């Protein structure tokens, strides 16, 4: 039979959970309104009204702390699951960019810093693998290099960096940003998909 927790144990657990949430909530809020370089354990401790020692009870190092912050950021972005087929892949920029737009402050705060690296190593790798699987399945007639390059091009347009470039460097509307990304994805995929027989005859290419 499972041992029941005492009221004291329950209070300790609740306090622990509340402290953990306070640390993470403070870190994410600080990330959104300051520069990434200011996301330090000292700054989070000061903002949360606790000691640095308290934070180090939860995280043995700054690396562990940043891993936790990156996980929280990814969770709050609520990006769509990676596409599983060609149709989903072609329509993926709309769903993905809509999420980036809703969380614009948080997305911009995580670009080009240690948090972004950690997110790319997690969800970015999952998305890359999904794109490769779709392209490999649809273009077995192409060389591995051709498929890899096509997947890399597609992956670029399924990133926060591409969304940010369109929206804030070029100043496009969200709808134009989505259309630009969808067009780029279709072109990248179209380069390696099997061509209709009439198109092959016109171009003189065997595939």
Features:
single chain; 207 residues; mainly alpha; Arc Repressor Mutant, subunit A; 11 helices; 74% helix; elongated
Structure characterization notes:
This protein is mostly helical. The protein has two domains: 7-75, Arc Repressor Mutant, subunit A (Orthogonal Bundle); 78-203. Helices cover 74% and strands 0% of the residues. It contains eleven helices and no strands. The longest helix has 27 residues, at 7-33. The relative contact order is 0.09. Mean pLDDT is 85; it is low at 1-15 and 198-203.
- Tell me the total number of β-strands: 0
What's the gyration radius in Å? 22 Å
Q: Summarize the helix and strand pattern as letters.
A: HHHHHHHHHHH
Q: Kindly state the percentage of residues in helix.
A: over 70%
Rounded mean pLDDT is 85
| Overall outline | elongated
The end-to-end span amounts to: 67 Å
Low-confidence stretches: 1-15, 198-203
Give the amount of beta strand, in percent: under 5%
Major sheet characteristics: none
Tally of alpha and pi helices: 11
Pairing-aware structural class of the strands and helices?
mainly alpha
Number of domains: 2
Short description:
This protein is mainly alpha-helical and 207 residues long. 74% of the residues lie in helices and 0% in strands.
How are the secondary structure elements laid out?
Blueprint: H1 7-33, H2 41-48, H3 52-58, H4 62-77, H5 86-102, H6 104-109, H7 114-138, H8 144-157, H9 160-169, H10 174-190, H11 197-203
